[in-house]
Specification:
It contains ten helices and no strands. The radius of gyration is 16 Å and the shape is globular. It is mainly α. The chain is 81% helix and 0% strand.
Length: 159
């Protein structure tokens, strides 16, 4: 979509700049965040795999391009992803969590912006991974069979 292309264009056209300069996407994120938040709060987003995947693609792209700018929104974003996963069991939610864990591991600035120290990061991700794993195990043993959701199982193991 449009937001993904805008992020891609802005990332390709900007350099990291001098210390103290804000990223070119700072204003874009400030303007787009309320829209992204409204979309994510709508029940259709959580239940429709295509809408959820598209939204999570945008969030993943922002996380990889401007992780420090996503930091202040991170806790709310993780809450949304977990709630959406609990409704949809969409593999892209697990893909997003995987990308978030990698970003936190490689980008110290996102943890600082999210207000998490090393212990806080470990705790939140341990709890997050345990919860998502338990939800998935329950889903593939009580609702669906593993052969009915191979993409979900693959996403869980890649997480």
């Amino acid at each position: 979509g449009v937001i993904r292309e805008l992020v891609r264009f802005c990332d390709g056209s900007s350099s990291r700049g001098r210390a103290g300069d804000s990223h070119i996407l700072s204003d874009v994120l400030t303007a787009a965040w309320p829209v992204l938040n409204d979309i994510s709060s709508h029940p259709t987003c959580r239940a429709n795999e295509a809408v959820l995947s598209g939204l999570l693609d945008v969030h993943s792209q922002l996380l990889s391009v401007v992780p420090a700018l996503i930091g202040p929104y991170f806790k709310d974003l993780v809450t949304f992803v977990v709630k959406a996963y609990e409704v949809s069991f969409c593999p892209s939610a697990l893909d997003y969590v995987s990308a978030a864990v990698e970003s936190f591991d490689s980008e110290e600035s996102i943890g600082v912006a999210a207000g998490l120290d090393e212990n806080g990061k470990d705790l939140i991700f341990n709890q997050l991974l345990a919860h998502l794993s338990q939800c998935t195990f329950t889903y593939v043993t009580q609702t669906k069979r593993p052969n009915e959701c191979p993409q979900l199982i693959k996403a869980l193991f890649e997480m």
